[in-house]
Amino acid sequence: MAIEVSELEGLRDELIRARARGVRVTAYEGKRLEYGSDAEMAAAIADLDRRISRASRTPIRTVRAISSKGV
């Protein structure tokens, strides 16, 4: 089951706020998650950004090939 883009954005925003406050422990849906370093938090934020980008893309529906003889 895929996570909705809005939920991914919410998780990312929450993580960015926690990082800005200097907090390394976050809790969501009754789960507690502790990051060992700022680098781990930055990597988690980057991963969420990639997932959001991938989920937001519009699929390519038509591909057209054009060629010429170069004349």
TrEMBL record:
This is GpW protein. It comes from Pseudodonghicola xiamenensis.
